[in-house]
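User: I'll paste a sequence; please echo it back and then give the predicted structure.

Assistant: Echoing your sequence first, then the prediction.
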Amino acid sequence: MTSEERKQLKEQLLQEKEKVQKRIQSLKDLTQPIAPENAIGRVSRMDAINNKSVNEAALHTAENKLINIDEALRKIDDKDFGHCRRCGQPIPMGRLVVMPESSLCIRCAQK
């Protein structure tokens, strides 16, 4: 991976990190406890509880993505970063943007 590619990837990861952080904050707001004294009907309350569960799962996924982005940003300057740990071939830039924790190229990951 060239220094220009590293710079470009770092910029993309920082932009993605910002988006994920905003999403996490939004999801935290949506996963606040539902007060039992809220004057909503039984069906509406069940729907609100279900939506809260869905948002909690999305929050967990977003938090994991943020951890992976931070880990990639810490390792981006390592000489082996961006190369498959199995075959040594470069990992495509698009894969690293979508899955910054990738340590295998697509071919090796499918094996």
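The chain has a mean pLDDT of 88. The CA atoms of residues 42 and 48 lie 10 Å apart.
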